[in-house]
Design goal:
Structural class: mainly alpha
Number of domains: 2
Protein name: FAD/NAD(P)-binding oxidoreductase
CATH topology of the largest domain: Arc Repressor Mutant, subunit A
Number of helices: 8
CATH architecture of the largest domain: Orthogonal Bundle
GO molecular function: oxidoreductase activity
Radius of gyration: 22 Å
Strand content: under 5%
Strand order of the largest sheet: 1-2
Shape: flat
Number of strands: 2
Distance between the termini: 42 Å
Keywords: Oxidoreductase
Pfam families: Fer2_BFD
Length: 146
């Protein structure tokens, strides 16, 4: 349903479909999306991942593959005073590899939250830094003004 709504909006923006045509065709898709989204909170609670999914139990588990940082190292950084992923980055370089924390950021936050007895959102998240994805020197040189 969300894809159909996006397609209808794209067709409208490209001038292939009038606004009233888009809106009338969107009615059944919006109804479907509403039904699906109404069920989502229930499913999220019913099938919530266990704590070990985000915060590995074993200290030897590698959580940051780019920098080869283990869960034990993140827990040790928490004992040294790292309260959030950005402080852990300063201690350990988590989130500084090629993935820029896209693969490990949530796990690092979960481990730090676990160490402090906090909900994961309260541990914070990595601050995004440009470039958001690794680029080659050639791509950088091809940028306007480069």
């Amino acid at each position: 349903a969300a894809g159909a709504l996006a397609a209808l909006d794209a067709a409208r923006r490209l001038g292939r479909l009038a606004e009233h045509g888009r809106d009338s065709r969107a009615v059944p898709h919006r109804a479907t999306l509403g039904r699906v989204l109404a069920l989502r909170p229930f499913l999220d609670r019913l099938y919530a991942p266990g704590p070990a999914v985000l915060a590995p139990l074993e200290d030897a588990t590698v959580v940051c593959r780019c920098e080869e940082i283990t869960a034990g190292q993140v827990r040790a950084a928490a004992k040294l005073g790292a309260t959030g992923p950005n402080q852990a980055k300063a201690y350990l370089r988590t989130g500084m590899g090629p993935c820029q924390g896209r693969m490990c950021g949530t796990t690092v936050a979960a481990l730090l939250a676990e160490a402090q007895g906090l909900p994961i959102p309260e541990a914070g998240a990595l601050r995004p830094r440009a470039p958001f994805k690794p680029i080659t020197v050639g791509e950088l040189a091809d940028l306007p003004g480069g």
